Fold these 4 entries.
Entry 1:
Amino acid sequence: MSDFTTPVWGYFVGIVASAGIVWCLWLLYTQRRWLGKAPANQPVDTGHVWDGDLTELNNPVPRWWTVMYLLMCVFAVGYLVLFPGLGQYTGTLGYSSADDLRRQQDAQEAATRPLYARYEAMPVADIARDTRAQEIGQRLFLNNCAQCHGSDAKGAPGFPNLTDGDWLYGGSPDTILQTITHGRHGVMPAWTGVIDARTASDIADYVRSLSGLGVDRSRVFSGKDAFGTYCVACHGVDAKGNQALGAPNLTDNVWLYGSSQRTIEVTILNGRDNRMPAQEGVLTSAQIRILTAWVWRQSHADGDADAPANGATGANAGNALASGKP
């Protein structure tokens, strides 16, 4: 399938490709002295002389050079007839690099299917205890996830730490599997136009106080009052968040974007909009299960599927998704 959004670009590419061949043939034609009566190896005196004995000559193009370029033009015409190269024309062979890539991917998948077959139905907790699966999972993570979460899976501003056992949507194997498969879209609405900067600053002071951070105590009470008006619908009266909504826990001193007063104010006023891309279609179902087990294991070193990781039940995304959490 062509990537062109309009036929105009297809015609443009076809004209440029054809014009290149025509121009090359025209150039060869203008240098055709070897086809005429004059000997091919006889230079022409241009009449320019320097220092009395240095004469500029116009040497004819060597015959082998001309023949080589004629053959290249013939090859180019044949190529453009057989393969796509003239815009939207697909060629008589119907070759497509996308189809070729698909065939290679299918062949690769067929070759590796026996390796992943044993993990298709294995519980994630059991996969997490399998040494070979953990090695595969680490490589899958480094190839597909480390760009955002870091090679140590400890995240970066805007990209959650996957090792601290603190989760935005929940840290169960099934939830992580769903996150990796379908992705997540976390949105914190912007409150600009609804509250002013002073109120946002008061709320930021109150939120920071919930994690034991330094605040202006004189503003915490008004911040709590504003929080109760604008924020409890998602974060709850106790500010411990709501995993069903993807609203983070604001009491555990875990921050996706940072805990500074200014950062929290920016989050409140401008909101946040982050997205975790879905991996279905990129990874096979077995690869996603292995990757799920590897991610889950980072906060469950003992491999116990029932024990909460690090005693945490709360907020930050253990998956690559965004939240309103500063």
Entry 2:
Amino acid sequence: MSAPPSARATTVFRWTGSDRQGHAQSGQIQALNADLARVQLRRQGLQQVQVQRLWWSPPDTVKAKDLAVMTRQWAAMLRAGVPVVQALGMLCRSMSAKGLVIVMNKVRSEVEAGVALHDALAKHPKHFSGLYVHMVQAGEAAGILDTMMERLSLTLEKNEAMRSKIRSALMYPIAVMAVALGILVLILVLVVPVFQDVFQSFGAELPLATQLVVGMSNALVRAWPAGVPLVLMLLWAAQHKSPAASRMRQWLARWWLHWPVLGPLLTTSVVARWAQTLSALLAAGVPLTEALGPTAQACDHAVFAHITLQIQRQVVQGHSLSESMAQSGRFPAMIVQLCATGEETGALDSLLGRAGALMESELDDQVNGLSSLLEPLIIVVLGGFIGAILVAMYLPIFSLGQVF
């Protein structure tokens, strides 16, 4: 018994052709064979189609920034009265992000085949989150898809702006620490053993500081074979979705939250994104019990995603949102109080939006303070550490000079 077409492996083809106006077009398409690829392209109105099989193609990754820009353009087209399928075709021709073009071509083919837009997007969960699918579904159901797309683009832009702030605040410190740690490792692995051989020829007892540095060097040289599997395990945990990898991501995310300066910064960023996402879904008419699921996915943090799913289960059981948030112990008291007020007044979506704006302002203040604090602190700490190692290495030489 042969497998159904949907179960057979598809092949990626690169195609070239022209549209009805004679403009040259190109792209990639997935099909069972070259003939079916030509048929699909001709159904889309393309002429003089030529296809070529690609034996390898890069993964169709989609950046959050490109998705936000595309959603804004899509909303503008819908607001101007352009039909959905025609807007999808215009987007595919105008976008420069190849991964996004591939995905949107698949979505357009499915919509042309009669699939609802939100169902077509839901077939690509790696690229379109639950937030995206639910807001599109709400817009289709209410006949206000253009309005929902504008709200969605605004939410995506705000979330991406907060991620950009965190990245910009941490980029310089991480780069400096990476370079400094690399220099420290090279000193301990390559330079200190040379000094150690020289010190052994002295035949005298080494100072305590020098003994500590030599001990660190020996420990690092012996421990690096165990460090490689640890790094590989962390990379595996970041990519896989197994229960063990999920537990490791939970532990790492919880560990980062306990850092003195970085923890509050990450908490503020995640809570702001959480409040803005939930506000957008509630404003779109999505029920609270359904909106918490996409919110857990959109907050992009293992700890808060787990907590949000727990809150969802408690809300389904009849608990209030504010009570469940307070029990988790992860949300600031101000956010919890605003949610309680919103539940009492029936304006939960607007108060959550205000809470997100307040947390975003607090994030700006924290980022500015972190930038002014970390740069001199890192220079002083790492400079002092490297200087201490160098002094410890030269102490035996100074002692030897005093003897002679």
Entry 3:
Amino acid sequence: MSVNTELRAFFESRRQQIPAEVGAVMQRAARELADSGQADRALTVGAKAPSFALPSATGRSVELAELLADGPVVLTFYRGAWCPYCNIALRSLQRHHDAIAARGARLVAVSPQNPDESLSYAEKNELAFDVLSDLGCGTAVQYGLAFDLPDDLAAVYARAGIDLDRFNAGHPRTLPIPATYVIDRSGTIRWAFVDTDYTTRAEPADILAALDGLG
């Protein structure tokens, strides 16, 4: 099953459980973000990938330059472990981790949540790749992905018990647009997936095809 088939099935099963007024807030926020054109302004193929040094779930600093010294990098941005769509996407990437590694590439995932939250998620799901903390979304800003939640949607999340202030260490409103990049050893983005619709993610098969195309 493709990851987007799995995501769509989850979306359809959950949609029936969401109150109409909450659904209206979520749909309006999604429409406004899509209409903002931010996805079109995010970094894409041919751009130089901004460098970063971010803490892993275990507190180790991970630098893009060090990763690229060993081969290409698959860099994926996600909203956080509180997002069920992100969890589905990360589990799908975990299932394809060996295939990514077999192509000489490193997979890293980046979210704005604090290292403790990342560690809990990585341990629970036995992830074989680094999960990095981009507190305040500084790296996401460099990639053109960071945005602020509107007040009414932030309130919906708060009422649902999603404590973004705690998860994101005092940066509750800023999140990244979900995105995945394939970066070659020279630091150039060779493949990109950016979509403001958080219920849609990069297909692992497309990531593997992009890695195969690096030559």
Entry 4:
Amino acid sequence: MNAPTPIRHLQVAPFLFFLGCSIFLIPDNVFAVGLPTITFGVEDAESPQQVSTALQVLFVLTILSVTPAIVLMTTCFTRIVIVLGFLRQAMGTQNMPPTQIILGLSLFLSFFIMSPTLNRMNETAFQPYINEEINQAEAFERAIIPMREFMFSQVNEESLALLADLTLDSEPYDQEDIPTMTLIPAFMLSELKRAFQMGFMIYIPFLVIDMIVASILMSMGMMMLPPVIISMPFKLLLFVLVDGWNLIVSSLVRSFGL
């Protein structure tokens, strides 16, 4: 077969142009006749109760989406994961233990430390709400009380005074005058400060080992050999001899007053 000539392609062009113009010339009512109405399961609300239910569903979905952030901001997870991250960097073991292991250990330690607070929230707020003894608003008010008490027990006075000065118009007289939206960032700042303090204390023994190994290598004239390669086995040996994991975990748990 012979290949189509360019002339045949040019003959099709006027027909396509005429077809495109004819579509725009068709009246609008032609498309409206005989076409079924397409719905996607969304209908107009017939009562205020339907609107309220839809807003409640939207609110629940929003809460579920920000639950990880709430866990990070209002529990002991922040301090634990930062300290364990400092420990891994101080030992110089790159990705050992893996990030998933550190996050998993931090999460379970957080559940262990927060168990008294979570039990109080379950007894005073969740169970009465499930048994239809209280409504949603009262359940939320009861649930926030144990969480606020935990954050007040761990918050630093300087951080709390800073956030109160920035967000409140007048000086608070007691804990009831401090809103939760002011308490949460103050609690986060306190957790960051204590986590970095603990991380500094963890770094000191490993830093001493690095300095000793580097001094020995320089005295032997082995300046081309990286000191990290030689010091890492000694760091691991020191960590194993002092039972480092139990020491770190017990220090973290006791730092929350348990």
